[in-house]
Amino acid sequence: VLETALSGDLEGWARWTVAARAGDSGGGSRALFEQEVTVRRRLLRALAVPGRPLFRANHRLMMRSGQRGLRARLAEAV
User: pLDDT digits over 35-74, tens only?
Assistant: First the structure.
């Protein structure tokens, strides 16, 4: 478990939990990311609704890029 406090434009916490996958005898694992944040910056709060499509698209791109990087890194370790 790795947990951190967030402060600044976003305040709250984020946590990564990595555990062996139940019933997986092949050594698999499961990574779970959780977060609870509050937007503190007034401008970001004002843009939350009209900017939602842009924020969601940006999030998808970042997650996809992170997934590719993680897969590449894990493939190197094998």
Answer: 999 999 999 889 989 999 999 999 999 999 999 998 999 8
User: Which residue in 4, 70, 10 sits closest to 45, CA to CA?
Assistant: 10
Q: Which of 29-36's residues contact partners 24+ apart within 8 Å by CB, and which partners?
A: 35/6, 36/12
Distances from the Cα of 10 to the Cα of 6, 13, 15, 38, 69, angstroms? 6, 9, 15, 6, 25
38 dihedral zone (left: phi>0; alpha: psi -120 to 50; beta)? beta
Domain spans of the chain, in order of start: 1-40, 48-78
Question: Has this prediction a pTM greater than 0.70?
Answer: no
Q: Where are the alpha helices (DSSP H) in 3-78?
A: 42-47, 52-77
